[in-house]
TrEMBL record:
Identification of the protein by name: Uncharacterized protein
Organism: Streptomyces finlayi
Segments of this protein annotated with the region Disordered: 1-28
Length: 127
């Protein structure tokens, strides 16, 4: 490699490459911490909302601990890949924008969308 060649193992300057254990665009440890924080916040049943339940379901699913996807209800046996996360995020968007398609509470879907949008880096606002 010459002085002006780029090392293929080194990401270009200014780019952000997710770590090997990434969940979407976030480090797995960051998503696990977000789940713990939300679980602690919503620990008492009277403090849970449909939004927090949806966000919890989104986090649990992306971490590979759910048997079904949070919006579509499809079977899920492992942590989803980026394509699957994006597909579920798109399904949430469709349900949020088209009430005819919505078969689960809007606030729950909003919580799922919030969690998945944050995980994928589409939003900086962590639920």
């Amino acid at each position: 490699m010459t002085l002006h060649e780029e090392d293929p193992a080194t990401p270009p300057e200014g780019s952000t490459t997710p770590p090997a254990d990434a969940v979407g665009a976030r480090p797995r440890t960051e998503v696990e911490a977000a789940l713990r924080d939300l679980e602690a916040e919503a620990a008492a049943p009277h403090r849970q909302t449909q939004i927090s339940r949806g966000a919890l379901a989104g986090y649990i699913w992306v971490l590979g601990s759910a048997q079904t996807t949070p919006v579509t209800g499809d079977q899920s046996s492992a942590a989803p890949n980026d394509e699957q996360i994006t597909a579920e995020l798109t399904s949430a968007e469709r349900q949020l924008t088209d009430p005819v398609r919505r078969d689960i509470p809007r606030e729950y879907v909003q919580g799922v969308w919030d969690a998945l949008a944050w995980v994928t880096g589409r939003s900086d606002k962590k639920p």
